[in-house]
Amino acid sequence: MLFSWSCGKKKEPATPAGGPPSQAGTPQAGSPQAPSASSNGFQPESIETTGLPNGLRVTATPEGGTASTSQVANLDIACGRATPADTVATKRRFETLFVVDKPGVYTFALMTDDDSVLSVGGKEVGRAPTLRDTKVPVEFSKAGVYRLTLDLTNNLGPYCADIKMSLPGSDAFAPIPAASLFVPR
To answer: Where are the beta strands (DSSP E) in 101-159?
Structure first.
């Protein structure tokens, strides 16, 4: 594993997008033989980011409650850091416009509490079960602006969404630079 988070829960092997493998020995996301990024056909959107604030829009919807919207600077809400405890199950949607400067395979490292789904342009690219270090390779064939969404479900208690990224040709993971994230209109 690349990270050593501890939130008091046992880490288990990650599950690739589409669910658990059907055969023993199948490589799983986060393993040295993790699946490579597929040709996904993502196209950049015709969106101008000039004048948009950096960050992500967050919509929180508690079970049986009313949605509220806020903004965060990045997806570095680290596991183990104090976040407000949810007293009812709450779904959070983090939405951003992600600027890709150079085409290639960008790998996202997801660690969330509880489960999460990462999408690009409305298409699911990976799932991260509760507190599993999950690697999601995404191929961007063109430079441009792409819509990224992280849907996070928190059952009860504190939540976290610690998302890091490696650039094409690199194995080093770091937080997604704020200069690459813009709040959508």
So the answer is: 104-113, 116-120, 123-128, 134-140, 144-154
Spatial distance between the Cα atoms of 40 and 36, rounded to a whole number of angstroms: 11
The structural domain count of the chain equals: 1
Model-wide pTM > 0.85: no
pLDDT tens for residues 128-158?
988 888 999 999 999 999 999 999 998 877 7
| 19 found inside a domain | no
For residue 64, give every residue at least 6 positions away whose Cβ sits within 8 Å of its Cβ, in sequence order, or none.
88
Note down the domain range covering 175.
75-182
- Residue owning tokens 């015709």: 46
Whether the Cβ atoms of residue 176 and residue 56 lie closer than 8 Å to each other: no
> Any idea which of 11-20, 140-149, 169-178 has the lowest mean pLDDT?
11-20
The enclosing domain of 119 has a CATH number of: 2.60.120.1560
Q: Is residue 39 part of a domain?
A: no
